[in-house]
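Follow-up to my post from last week.
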Amino acid sequence: MIVRISGEGQFELPDEDLDRLNQLDNAAVAAVEAGDEGGFREHFEQLIALVMTDGAPLALDDLVESTVIVPPRDISFEEARGEFSGEGLIPD
Amino acid sequence: MAGLSGRMSTVIKAKIAGLLNRAEDPEETLEYGYQKQIELLQNVKKGIADVVTSKKRIQMQSQKLEQQIVKLDTQARQAVAQGREDLARVALERKTTAQTEIQSLDQQVAELERQQEQLTANEQKLRQKIDAFRTKKEVIKAQYSAAEAQVRISEAATGVGEEMADLGLAIQRAEEKTENMRARADAVEELEAAGTFDDMTQIGGGGDDLDRQLAELGSGSQVDDELAKMKAELGPAPTEEPPALEEARPQEGKGPA
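User reply:
Got it. Predicted complex:
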């Protein structure tokens, strides 16, 4: 699968990483909903780390759509709150 | 990736959608891509210019505060040497405030620099993607039937569209950050105008303001420590002569408390 970290680029990850990615994603969202900034940071950083360690950067002339797009690494807690409610980081 | 969108929660669900109309005509898609690239390029340039302007302004403020810190420190020493602990305390309070401000200003300058680098790098990446798209389009056209080529070119166009959307987002975030920093720079200027960092030669009217700010500082222990250190360094103050701190004497007639 192809994962984009917003602002950084695209990475190709083995499909087996999907479950782990999904767990971290759910945990990060749950932390935001609970107003737990520390918990959010922790899970979000693990998620980014997973993409960086397991993922291979795509070549610049690869023109493919991402399977998932992860918000920017330096997203603030306030931005995250806005992202997970309302119209999101990237409005449709 | 069956069921992906249903299973994934919200952090990584942030999909860029509908930014590039998956045009029936690849030529149109490419044309749109170029237009979009030119717009983005202009935005990137504007974004970077804003970042640089804010950075310069913040750097100037930071330098001004550095000078005030040196002055206030000297005056605090003079005050201690002449037994005017009250004056020394005021000078040190102001010095502490100025130091805190400088720290936050410096962090912002570093942040702006990161933004500037990231935007520039992303813009270059987008240029390369667009070039790759142009090349790929010709290859696809030569290799596939018209109908198949159209599908494949549309897919590639979606990839480029995502890259554009992502750069657009980065620009938007950089602008928001620049905006915040501008607000911060304004706030520091207001503090300056209120005399928060003035050296002691400039204490005059506006006593209300000064007292209010000093009360708000809450930097007591650092000031106490520094004052004690200065006293230890400078030895006991002379007791005979009356305090005669030329420059640092507060003028009479502070406003009513």
